[in-house]
Amino acid sequence: MISTFFGLDALSSSSAMAAAFLIGLAFGFSLEQAGFGSSRRLAGIFYFRDMAVLKVMFTALLVAMLGLQYASGLGLITEDQLFFMPSIYGPQIVGGLIFGVGFVMGAWCPGTAAVGLASGRMDALVFLAGAGLGSVFFNELFGVLKGLYTWGDRGVRFAWQDLGLSAAGFGFLLVAVALVLFWGAEYLEKRRTVGGEYWRSPFLRSFSSVMILLALGLMAMEGRVAGDRPAGLQISTSAMLAEIESAKDHMEPEELADRLMRGEPGLMAVDIRPAEEYAEFHIRGAVNISMADLLEALAGRENKGIIVLYSNGMTHPAQARDALFRMGFTNVYMLTDGLVGFIDRILKPASLRTEPLSAEQRARINSWRQYFLSSEKPQPAQAEPEESLAVSQPVAPKWPGLVEPAWLAENLGNREVRVIEVRAQAQYNSGHIPGSVCVSHDNFRGVVGGVSSMLQPPELLAWHMSLMGIRPTDRVILVPDDEPHDATLVAMAFARLGHTRFGILNGGFPRWIHEKRPVTTELPQVEKSQYPVPSPDVFTVTHKEIMEVLKAADHVILDVRPTEYYTGEKVDEARGGHIPGAKSRPYTEDLFKHGKVTLLKPLEELANAYTSLVPNKQATVIIHCRTGHQASQTFFVMRYLLGYERVLWYDAGWSEWASRSELPVEK
Amino acid sequence: MIMKESMGPKPYMNPYLAGVILGLTLLASYLVLGAGLGASGGIARIAAYLEGGLAPSHVGSSEYFGAWGKEPLNYYLVFMFLGVFAGGLISAVLSRRFKFQVERGLKAPRQFRLVLALAGGVLAGFASRLAQGCTSGQALSGSAMLLSGSLVFLICVFAGGYAAAWFVRRQWHD
Prior knowledge:
The structure holds 2 protein chains of 2 kinds. Chain A is α/β, with parallel strands linked by helices. In chain A, a hairpin with a 2-residue loop joins strand 9 and strand 10. The longest helix of chain A is centred in the N-terminal third of the chain and has 28 residues, at 122-149. Helices cover 67% and strands 0% of the residues of chain B. The longest helix of chain B has 21 residues, at 110-130. Classes of the chains: A alpha/beta, B mainly alpha.
């Protein structure tokens, strides 16, 4: 999978600058080759003389669109690695119209004018000077234009969603429209001028066919990913037999043991035995997926990482592996000799082995036994001493996500890096991170629709952000004290606003202190901003929507309250128990402590825990607690840290569910 | 004479082929940078830098340019813009199309053409700041991502262009 400079938050690094220059080279070269170093040729489209602009621009649009959709369909790139511009209709409509007038008057646009200047065109130089002046005018008038600048801000919107189509379906439509335009342009040129040389040419025929085929291929691929996978995806039987022949489909127990102990990312051991047997004993780190659920649970993991299947023996894994191979998985292995072999070759104590062993082999066996026979269950009561906590490294954060104290310390002066401490006012006053403001998570909540403690609607949240001087492009770091879910609740406010770059300080304020980072008692200078109000978010659900989801097949409800509330032993509301079918996963299970520092558990551990609860990352997951507060932490973990795609938040939570007697309850 | 003939400018590339190369460049930009192509952002930052040279405190305190900090040129789009110029130069020289001139219709006065180019530049520069992108950043890069607002921008550019085309046609009269 590709990590882009944007995804790594490294667009301002010198290597990104170099890459941008090289891309610019190719950009300028192709524009000049297309003849866009000539204003006369560019203006031609507006007088139906020379339609080159239409042909070049729309061909480029189609190629890039198809390429991007194939890249994402094949799992090469994910959405979080791409910068999507928001749709802000006011300025885009007004700006588009003004731009069009400027385009036809000047007969250049910014990119082509650069190429025109490089071709010696003095009118391009004048146009560029004008464009610079126009930018300066905009800056001077920004005060009065602000209203228009954010008017009609709808956040990131895709045309296919707005039209109720699939991405590939809309792409096909676009290809069809573009081809009609191409043929029309050729015909027009042929009639009016000397151009039109490609009208009915074999070139344009084959070019059109290739475009249509590529668009159709995309639709077929989308159908395969979304719908039932047809069994007939052709992976040749001989290829499969060849792999079996060369035992490429096996992994030896020793190899699996070593790789599991190293904590290799992307390695997934899957126990396909019944849940009772799994509960009794399993290889440490393995997840339990039944044979019937395998395809669904492993969807999206084909050819990503390594999947090792095991059962007691070899028959079931072999069948499962063959089935997966036919579906296009080439990264599935089975454990040689199954669990029986693993116990014999890995877990059997050295003293019971009949073969002669060297000292090295004995040591290796002992380390295996120590790792795989030790309890996987962490002891939450036992806090590790604070001294054992390693000092953070300045790694660039992934937004939204966790932010390392070392990174924040390096970026404290940056105007676009804003720190919000979600701590008690008195403690903030006696020392806080320089430049930070302090706010209580309860500031963002109120009575909505008769239910208390609801996250406020976007208008109010945007008002809060404006008062704090936060702009949509800022990187916002939320700093909790020893309760990460205070910060994740504020994170929900940012999520509701469609803010893209926010994160939680890993370990919160206590870790900042533990690492002896700077603190101050001075208050920051804050200038009011105008935070735009977006449309409602898509992740908050009501009890009615939950009743709808309960009917759908692929959903999981996670109840993150303490277990005794889930079981109904303890009741603080009208009724006790849980939503029918809900699974219990107390939010505290995701935490551990080093002295005073509360941290989320390591990602690998969280990933394993949640994979056994919700194997399918595309499944609809509804998270709730009593008031939405604790649930915000699990939401943060699943949505942003583990990459579950459809995570929903039932903000009203058990306090509403219990009080509505028409809603079903299970104990 | 034969020599001179062969030294004339080369014909333009097949526009569909040029479009494919441009599209692949845009795709590379998505996959490497994570963002599309852009040109007006580079121009605006160069303008902010130049204005900053004349009136540093004014630019530093202005709300829009001020947000770019003390070094507005330290941005990937500025480097991309320089690349566009360099790539255009290489291509123009290789294809023997480099020529100092003010491009216009034979009957159109040079000054008329230059005034229109300046006014067009001002409008385009202003509008691309307002809409957060130009033909490259919004119309091409955003539309290829199938973003609603970018497609609306693309349609509006052509609507505005065709609406105004008749009024400025004289600059191309031969």
